[in-house]
Structures are given as C-alpha cells and as structure tokens.
Amino acid sequence: MHLPSGVLFRLFDADRLLRAAARRGARRFATAWVRGLGDVPFIVGEFARHVRSRAPGAELTVLARPGLQEALRWCDAVSRVVVVDEWRREQTLSSPWGLAYPPPWEIVRALARRSLEVDAVLPYPLGRWYDREPERRRPSLRWSEAEARSGRDFLDRVAPDPGRFVIAVNAFIGTGRYYDHDKEWGIPRFAALIDAVLDAIPEARVVLVDAARTDGLPRHPRVIDARGTLGVAESVSVIAAADLFVGLDAAHANLVYFLEGVSAELIVVLGRTSCFTPLRYPPASPGVKLTPIVGAGEDVHAVSVDAVLAAVREAHARRRAATRA
After folding, report:
1. What HEC string does 17-54 produce?
2. 97 pLDDT tier (thresholds 50, 70, 90)
3. Most CB within 10 Å of its CB: which of 7, 128, 164, 240?
4. What residue numbers bound the domain in which 26 lies?
5. How many C-alpha atoms does 10 have within 13 Å on its Cβ side?
6. Are residues 15 and 63 in the same domain?
7. Do 12 and 124 fall within a single domain?
8. Residue 98: closest CA among 122, 124, 121
9. How does residue 1 score in pLDDT terms, banded at 50, 70 and 90?
10. Is 30:63 a contact under the CB 8 Å cutoff?
11. Paired sense of beta strands 244-248 and 165-169, if any
12. Do 63 and 157 share a domain, yes or no?
C-alpha cells in the first residue's frame, strides 16, 4: 500500500528541510534519484540549482541507481554523483513511498557504506519549489567535447557516405509499468515508417538506438542496428550528430533537447502532452527544432504512419535546401 504523496511532501518537503539546514550552516547536501533518466534535466538539474540559490556555495551529492550517472554528471550544479549498485528502479513499484525514491535511512546507509559525509539529506528533490514559477526555469545539460564527438565518429564509421541523411530512431521504451498511460507507438508502425522512409529517401540511413532489441523492425543494408550496444552518452551523441531523430517520449528526446551546444531536429510521437516536459520550456540550444506529432484524443496509437512520414520528408527537404544554400 502506498502512502499518500501529500503526507510525504509534508514530511520531507525539500524547501522546509533545506531552509532548516541552511540556517544551521549546512553546505554539503545529499539527495537521491532512482526514477526516469529523462527526468534528470528538469527535476534533478533544476533542484541542484535551487539548492545553490538557497545555500550559496552548497555542494550537492546525488545518489542514483545504475544507468543514470552520465546524464546526472551533465547537470552543472551537481557536485558529485554516486552510483548505488544495489538500487533498482523496479523496487519502486512495491515501495510504500509510492513516489519512487529511497527513504532517508537508505540514503544515510548508502553514504555510510561509502564513508561519505554530508551535513544534511534532502530525500526527495521535489516539493513546493517545483511548482513555483516553472516558466522561469531553463533546464540545461552540459557535456564534454569528447562525448559530443563520439556520435559523429560513430556515424562516420557506420555510414561513411558523404551524401547520407541519417535518421536516428528510438522505437521502443519498455518502461510502461512505471506510467499510467501508454507511450509506445508500436513496433509495427515504426517498421512501416522505416520501410516507407527507405523507399522515399534513397540517401537515408536509419540508425536504431533503443536500449534493448525487440523483434519486428526491418533488416536492410541501410538500417544500422545499434540497439543495446550504446551507452547513454553514446546514444545521445549519435542522435545529436544525426540529421534527424524520430522517437518517443523517452529519455533520448529529453536529454538531447536540454543539451547545450547541439544542433538537432527532433520528431517525437506523443500521446499525453502534459507529460512531455520539453513542450513547457525552450530548448537549451537555439539549434534544436522539435516537432511533436500528437494523436487525436492524446492517444499515441492514433498517430498515423503517413503523418510521421510527412514530417520526415519535410525535415529532409529542409536539410537538402540548407545544403544547397
């Protein structure tokens, strides 16, 4: 049985705990994040900035489950990232906390096991601060030049044709059990889209960047299947280096959208728009163009293959015109 979220917010409200800790001179803080990778920019990154605004000079350590560390390190206000190997996202499904975060005593235990000391623990980086003036927040991530370059190097190896038009595709999320709505467009629709793109755009090269392999997508000489072989930074770098990204409301789209210094065109197939945070904020880089395609009644399955194909063809036409200019 899950405890009511309102009770938890009152008990562990980040504003209240931070205010009390700052009054006693705390400067070393710790919080934890085991939820989604795509939430990192606009929750954890913005929380780190909030902590520093309330306690100037503060250092924030973020403890996280495996798989989140690369994106967390892109948050410039996060001082240190500690991976807790024993934490898993799956355990949040049965947690009495219901808000998918480790209770404070687990955070304290994880710090003690690593001989790490902090002045205060802020168990959950949400609360009233998150609802105040959201329009003034500007989530952003910053990565290294080596990380940015890795995607370009990868594409030069797998698709060396100088006339290529590379489309990175994220066709499957696989995290439906964590949400009360469906984000999956469906492998059959993506398969039909890829076939249509290959027919319509001879220079197209499709790179599959899903975290895991699923059956049903086309096998073709111009389809590069990198699923399950790329880490978080590598897959995001491939997307940023591609001419176009086509995918779902998942970590890939969120991370690229909030990265500084990238130029990317994103087509995102959506159901419920209120859950896709990039629609609330401008991108971190002026070179990012986002085209959301929303199904009627906010049903992701109502998006037609033809609608997405039309958006792909428009993006291709823009790129061809820019190349000729």
Report:
1. HHHHHHHCCCCEEEEEECCCHHHHHHHHHHHHHHHHHH
2. low
3. 240
4. 5-135
5. 5
6. yes
7. yes
8. 124
9. very low
10. yes
11. parallel
12. no
